[in-house]
């Protein structure tokens, strides 16, 4: 069983965790800080980021904590965050693309949009992270042993990329669009692994999914919708446990590029294990098409 206690000493490592002020991201940042890493909490809300920073620092771990303001719903702000980070840092060992929104449920009946007009879940969960990863890639490549961990979800299994509707102009279904965004995250992770391997860069691209956790991700669901979700997937875990697949991908010597790690019990609960990727995640044509499209619209080309 791989637990938080399995994390090796992270002293000397610099890590960015997006969406680190709450939920799975907070627990991921906390565990890495306790293990000695210099952790950058990349958050969109300054007050929430400072609150998380205070809570983590109070635990007097071995590491260091820093705040970076990052709003993934605006590609210009993604560039601003990356530029600020690159000016201040000479290494980046791990980038954890954790932040996410789930605009499903009755509280979010219409499509929210990013600054560039993309459907919010696709724009934040996938496109913002695609651009962020590309902007930071040169530093990752220059840092020995660097890894990129991208979070997906069991929802990817029912996802499909609708290239004709990425701004939700034709139709909108929050749940369908969430699944699309989480499939896009897996395609990003696997396609990046393919591209890195092809050119021989010493960087690992690994996917993780946290299973079913009680976090603020559920904030747009009504009580009834939440109850229905629990009936479907079973009891929710506490987010410290949901953070373990991300942590495993970020630090374990056994984690491999191109893989997905998830909780062992059906993907919903338990301790990290290697997942079997389904066909839609391994679709090379879809991965290439999405990658080429994302490079085109963001203007960020890598690896
Ligand atoms: N919870 C689950 O059961 C579950 C299941 C499968 C996958 N996941 C995935 O796990 C990851 C973490 O989710 P969670 O459950 O911990 O959710 P959460 O508690 O809602 O945390 C999400 C984090 O993402 C941040 N975020 C949202 N929009 C952002 C933006 N535009 N720019 C920057 N940060 C933004 C949030 O910031 P604010 O606090 O300011 O909103 C928050 O820090 C997500 O990728 C999610 O899809 C979760």
Overall 3D form: globular
Give a short account of the largest sheet.
8 strands, mixed
Proportion of strand residues: 5-15%
Helix segment tally: 10
Look up the CATH topology. Answer: Rossmann fold
Helix/strand-derived class? alpha/beta
Strand order of the largest sheet: 3-2-1-4-5-6-7-8
Mean pLDDT: 95
Q: What's the β-strand tally?
A: 8
List the helices and strands and how they pair.
Blueprint: E1 14-18, H1 23-34, E2 38-43, H2 46-57, E3 64-69, H3 75-88, E4 94-97, H4 120-142, E5 147-151, H5 174-199, E6 204-208, H6 223-233, H7 239-242, H8 244-251, E7 260-265, E8 269-274, H9 279-282, H10 284-298
Parallel strand pairs: 1-2, 1-4, 2-3, 4-5, 5-6, 6-7
Antiparallel strand pairs: 7-8
Bound molecules: NADP nicotinamide-adenine-dinucleotide phosphate.
